[in-house]
Design brief:
- The model has no long low-confidence stretch (mean pLDDT 82).
- This protein is mainly β and 152 residues long.
- Strand 6 and strand 7 form a beta hairpin.
- It starts with 6 loop residues before the first helix and ends with a strand.
- The longest helix is centred in the N-terminal third of the chain and has 12 residues.
- The protein folds into two domains: 30 residues, no CATH class; 94 residues, Sandwich (Immunoglobulin-like), CATH 2.60.40.790.
- Helix content is 12%, strand content 38%.
- The strands form three sheets. The protein has a four-stranded antiparallel beta sheet, with no helix packed on it. Strands 3-4-5 form a three-stranded antiparallel beta sheet, with no helix packed on it.
- The chain is built from two helices and nine strands, in the order H-H-E-E-E-E-E-E-E-E-E.
- The radius of gyration is 25 Å and the shape is elongated.
Amino acid sequence: MERIDFTPLYRNTVGFDRLAGLLDSALQNNQSGTYPPYDIEVLDENRYAIRLALAGFAEDELSIELEKGTLTVSGKKAGSNDESHYLYRGIANRSFERKFQLADHMEVKSATFTNGLLSIELLRELPEAMKPRTIPIRGSQKVIAGKSEKAA
């Protein structure tokens, strides 16, 4: 696969080098198909939820890790001594690892596992320094014989 040149992006932006890296890795990433199936839901302006359908998994077979902006959800099936004979087997019974790249200032608030559905709640919390603010504009002042006057 041909790589995309992000040089034009760097000419007009400052501090978005992580974004270019994310785009590049997303284009190169070949995860294992669509297993397990998942949804990403916008709950409101700063809240999100990732839901994974994990039929056949037990809670102790699942792991959620967050490192350097990458949320990794994995499931390792315990060895099964099941000697059943199937005519058709459509329920996946294999280990998996699914990675999600999180934006800056995204935090994992909670994770629940109910009826085979793993729900991970995310919240974007911008630091005070990142929130919009108004910058006051001061006029230039002239100093005349020890007194200051605003310039016209």
